[in-house]
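User: Just a sanity check before I run the rest of the batch. Below are the structure tokens for the first item. I only need the designed sequence back.
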């Protein structure tokens, strides 16, 4: 056994040192609290700035569009009250031309009458034009939609990406007078958003129905895009702004990074940088809702945010360093424990000859474990040697029973099947071969029989010269003990017909009987032997000897035959066995040597 160290570091001291280091690094928790508070204040400040910006944008949008609603409502009241004749081109022309003067965002107005005539005014030339559009499809379309409208209705952009049509039906209480249309130019909103985006270092936008771009600083710089009546607005994908496409792809882990009352916000890692999106929906200016929003990248955040990020990175680095140190120490201690576990695994399954001693350690407690393990290993090797030697003289099942019952097996009476086997011509063998060769032949012969019998669960309780006494169903219970004994007997005879032992061909005779026996430890207090007694044992021996008279190799009693009647047997008659009262019917197998089973084939290969 290797010599172990006596002066070692206490594991308690080591752990205290490690935890002290962790506590020192725990100052990072204070840094974390400070960062959390500063981050909260920064987010609050950024939220207030964002809320002010969004309020400005919303007010600008409402300020640009609300006058249109007011003006159209005013015109509708004048016409429906009869103050202006809807059929009089001059009065209508003067009315709409004057209305456009007070609403510069309106670039044109049109009154479509039920007879499909219309009167229009445009801002560029200040001309009022009266036209007959009876054969125009779009005029018919507007007239057909008029009954489904109520009040001022904002439509989808249809006259270009910067113009939105607004319609209001006219009624005098008795009849439909026509539909008043206004074309609202929203270029001013995009220009305002572009200027504001540059001023506050943010990108501000307005989306129609979540995917069409209504206003954006880059709206007037879309190469390759051509506005049409059916597709007046570019989509998010057509705009030269890759970051805008991430507005609906929130990072779930940071969706609530900044909360602004009345606004939606989320955070996203996009194209290698963090992007914060803030937006809200407004309605009333089209069939769908508009999304007013803005986004800001990490590089555009105020300097305080960048400083917080640097502090957070430093704190995270310190904590990581502490974790690495703690991990190294833990791995060192854990490695010692794992080494003990591996050594213990080395002795699992009685592989003691491959087990290694544990080396010494500077950790006192680990060193004590190593010392105890090495002493235990020496003791186990001695115990294994004694157990191996015992196993050569006592069957394993009996040895286990001895251990279980404290070294003595209590006698018990039970039903068992007894197999008695005797070598044929043993006297002649002893006369014609040297003793050393005779022992070699017997050892090879007995090795085969022991293997076959134990393969079937039998226990060899006695070696009597060249004979073997084996039991089934004792000490271990076996419901099919008779079948096991019969299979073992037939396998033995089959194997002997194919094998040679040191060049010698051997045969044996077998007798099998089933009956009541008494099993237990018998002998002097200091030397005992496990065996079975009873008339059933004597009958098995008598049946083995009876093989000489019938020229057979296997005879079984009626008691065993009844437990395996489905085999191919023939009765040799009722006989009187010496020492037994009454006659016993005896059977022998018709097919004495069946096809070799796999277990026997393995035995043949082994020998």
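Assistant: Here's the designed sequence for the first item:
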């Amino acid at each position: 056994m290797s010599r172990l160290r006596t002066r070692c570091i206490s594991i308690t001291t080591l752990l205290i040192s490690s935890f002290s280091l962790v506590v020192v690094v725990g100052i990072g928790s204070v840094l974390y609290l400070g960062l959390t508070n500063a981050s909260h204040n920064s987010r609050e400040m950024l939220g207030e700035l964002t809320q002010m910006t969004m309020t400005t944008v919303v007010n600008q949008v409402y300020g640009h569009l609300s006058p249109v609603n007011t003006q159209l409502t005013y015109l509708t009241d004048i016409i429906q009250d009869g103050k202006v004749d809807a059929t009089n081109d001059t009065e209508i022309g003067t009315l709409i031309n004057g209305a456009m003067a007070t609403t510069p965002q309106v670039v044109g107005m049109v009154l479509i009458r039920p007879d499909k005539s219309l009167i229009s005014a445009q801002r560029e030339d200040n001309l009022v034009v009266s036209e007959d559009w009876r054969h125009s499809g779009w005029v018919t379309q507007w007239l057909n939609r008029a009954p489904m409208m109520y009040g001022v209705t904002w439509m989808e952009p249809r006259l270009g990406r910067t113009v939105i049509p607004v319609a209001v039906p006219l009624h005098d209480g008795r009849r439909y007078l026509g539909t008043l249309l206004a074309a609202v130019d929203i270029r001013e909103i995009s220009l305002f958003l572009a200027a504001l985006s540059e001023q506050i270092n943010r990108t501000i936008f307005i989306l129609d129905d979540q995917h069409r771009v209504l206003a954006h600083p880059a709206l007037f710089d879309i190469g390759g895009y051509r506005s049409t009546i059916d597709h007046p607005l570019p989509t998010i994908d057509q705009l030269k702004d890759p970051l805008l496409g991430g507005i609906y792809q929130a990072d779930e882990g940071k969706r609530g990074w900044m909360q602004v009352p009345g606004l939606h916000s989320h955070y996203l890692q996009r194209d290698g940088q963090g992007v914060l999106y803030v937006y809200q929906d407004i309605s009333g200016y089209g069939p769908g809702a508009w999304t007013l929003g803005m986004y800001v990248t990490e590089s555009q955040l105020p300097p305080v945010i960048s400083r917080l990020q640097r502090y957070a990175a430093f704190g995270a680095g310190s904590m990581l360093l502490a974790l690495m140190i703690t991990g190294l120490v833990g791995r060192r201690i854990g490695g010692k424990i794992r080494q003990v576990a591996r050594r213990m695994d080395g002795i699992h399954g009685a592989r003691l000859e491959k087990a290694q001693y544990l080396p010494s350690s500077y950790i006192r407690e680990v060193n004590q474990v190593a010392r105890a393990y090495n002493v235990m290993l020496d003791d186990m090797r001695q115990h294994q040697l004694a157990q191996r030697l015992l196993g050569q003289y006592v069957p394993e099942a009996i040895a286990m029973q001895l251990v279980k019952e404290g070294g003595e097996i209590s006698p018990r009476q039970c039903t068992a099947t007894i197999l008695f086997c005797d070598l044929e011509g043993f006297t002649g063998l002893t006369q014609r071969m040297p003793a050393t060769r005779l022992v070699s032949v017997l050892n090879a012969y007995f090795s085969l029989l022991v293997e076959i019998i134990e393969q079937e669960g039998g226990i060899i309780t006695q070696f009597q010269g060249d004979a073997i006494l084996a039991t089934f169903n004792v000490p271990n219970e076996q419901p099919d003990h008779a079948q096991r004994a019969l299979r073992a007997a037939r396998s033995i005879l089959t194997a002997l017909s194919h094998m040679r032992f040191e060049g010698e061909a051997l045969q044996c005779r077998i007798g099998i009987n089933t009956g009541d026996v008494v099993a237990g430890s018998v002998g002097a207090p200091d030397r005992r032997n496990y065996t079975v007694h009873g008339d059933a044992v004597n009958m098995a021996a008598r049946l083995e000897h009876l093989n000489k008279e019938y020229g057979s190799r296997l005879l079984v009693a009626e008691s065993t035959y009844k437990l395996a009647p489905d085999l191919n047997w023939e009765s040799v008659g009722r006989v009187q066995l010496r020492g037994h009262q009454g006659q016993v019917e005896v059977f022998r197998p018709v097919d004495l040597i069946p096809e070799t089973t796999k277990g026997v084939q393995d035995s043949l290969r082994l020998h």
